[in-house]
Amino acid sequence: CGVFGVIGQAEAANFVALGLHALQHRGQEAGGIVSHDPEQGFNSARRFGYVRDNFTKASLMETLPGPLAIGHVRYSTAGKKGAVIRDVQPFFGEFAMGGAAIAHNGNITNAAALRKELIQHGSIFQSSSDSECIIHLMARSFQKNIPERMKDALRRVEGAFSIVAMTRTKLIGVRDALGVRPLVLGKIGDTGWALSSETCALDIIGAEFVREIEPGEMVVITAEGVESHRPFAPAKPRFCIFEHVYFSRPDSIVGGQSIYETRRQIGVELARECPVDADIVCPVPDSGTPAAIGYSQESGIPYAMGIIRNQYTGRTFIEPTESIRNMGVLLKLNVNRALIKGKRVILVDDSVVRGTTSRKIKEMILDAGAAEVHFRIASPPTMWPCFYGVDTPERDKLLAANMNEEEMRAHLGVDSLRFISLDGLYRAAGEAKGRNNDYPQYCDACFSGEYPVEPADMIAQGFEI
Ligand code: 5GP
Ligand code: SF4
Ligand code: MG
């Protein structure tokens, strides 16, 4: 998901709509905005579909007045399939001291246990979302102001969270102690501030990137400026390495390096680790493009657009059902036949999850008369589900959890299939010595099975790690 917030700008909701539009790649199912106006109080609008189809209408935006607003773009993660509007964020509630609204990116790994406890104590839930727990925990806290109540609440929450929240007068940003999901701070002109999942959404509103919110940090922003708090016990950061591979937009900056450059470097590493003789290097667009450029540059094999992407379809993986996802590949990608015919083709994609995309693409490429097909994948085999906010399927649906590399190659029906090593991926992400196996610098649980936060709810349901 993507989160965005603005304070200190007239009609803040308009800025939030633009920010959410730039974060649309993080979630395409639905979006929502909550604003606050001194006269009209809190207002909220939540809609299915793209930001541009909803939050551009004057009639809707007029209902979201005020100098303070937050928003969310959603894609549902494991266990919450089937979209219902009551699960669309931001969540907002009035309680002591005026109440608050929150937008959450990540996943709370002990939400089921918390929810049960809260319901037993009288909380009235409006949604099935894990994120709603935070509002109820805040409402039940005895602290004397909302940021302190939020600290109370978040100390009970386990898992990954980057949160943008608001009271009647404050914009609040928080990252969990490991900093699994991104969150950045921007300055708008002389008076305004923005919080965003990624820097690309600051650019769209002309905000200046100030800095990342640090893992374990809470910022409280008012007209007076930005206050920094440290509510959690210090921990070694474990940013999601898959943000580098796929999730973030290539024009965003993380840790001082552009995501594009990291992905290009992944391609360079991949060409060194897994060379093959061929005529052209083609990306599976768009997610494989920067890595294919890097592969081509390092190998000297020409880059070519062997697959053309229809720009009017969304991200396949994020489609919530299997049948739509199957269709999605054909709706989205088509082979550039004239180019492919008779060629030995290296196809570069970011990941193999279920293998659906790769199988379809292989069929299209062979159908177009390719002489050979070699898959090169910009991440290690995805063997484990993510419990921190990325929608990977259960283990039995993950190709790499059930087959070794040769079996996967045979299943996909390609001439060769190779994945970047975990060390290679770490090097591309700026860790010159690769992965520190004693204290890994990133979360890489979907590749390694080493979960930095125990997925308590899943373990209670019998999941084995
Ligand atoms: P598959 O078809 O193998 O199930 O999915 C792989 C494709 O889904 C890749 O092309 C990748 O770009 C895309 N993808 C989209 N979202 C995700 C995600 O959250 N996790 C992973 N691993 N791949 C994703
Ligand atoms: Fe990211 Fe994978 Fe960790 Fe999930 S399990 S947070 S996708 S690295
Ligand atoms: Mg892709």
From TrEMBL:
Which terms are listed as keywords in the entry?
Answer: 4Fe-4S, Glutamine amidotransferase, Glycosyltransferase, Iron, Iron-sulfur, Magnesium, Metal-binding, Purine biosynthesis, Transferase
**Reaction catalysed by this chain?**
5-phospho-beta-D-ribosylamine + L-glutamate + diphosphate = 5-phospho-alpha-D-ribose 1-diphosphate + L-glutamine + H2O
Q: What is its EC number?
A: 2.4.2.14
What range(s) does the Glutamine amidotransferase type-2 domain occupy?
Answer: 1-224
Q: Write one Gene Ontology MF term.
A: amidophosphoribosyltransferase activity
Gene3D superfamilies with a match to the protein in the record: 3.40.50.2020, Glutamine Phosphoribosylpyrophosphate, subunit 1, domain 1
**What's a BP term from Gene Ontology annotated to this protein?**
'de novo' IMP biosynthetic process
Co-factor binding comment: Binds 1 Mg(2+) ion per subunit. Binds 1 [4Fe-4S] cluster per subunit.
Which residues are Mg(2+)-binding? S287, D349, D350
| Source domain of life | Bacteria
Q: Does the keyword 4Fe-4S apply?
A: yes
* Residues noted as binding [4Fe-4S] cluster in the record, renumbered to the chain: C240, C386, C443, C446
- Cofactor (UniProt): Mg(2+); [4Fe-4S] cluster
Annotated catalytic residues: C1 (nucleophile)
- Family membership: In the C-terminal section; belongs to the purine/pyrimidine phosphoribosyltransferase family.
Report the function annotation for this chain: Catalyzes the formation of phosphoribosylamine from phosphoribosylpyrophosphate (PRPP) and glutamine.
Instruction: Indicate what this protein is called per its UniProt record.
Output: Amidophosphoribosyltransferase
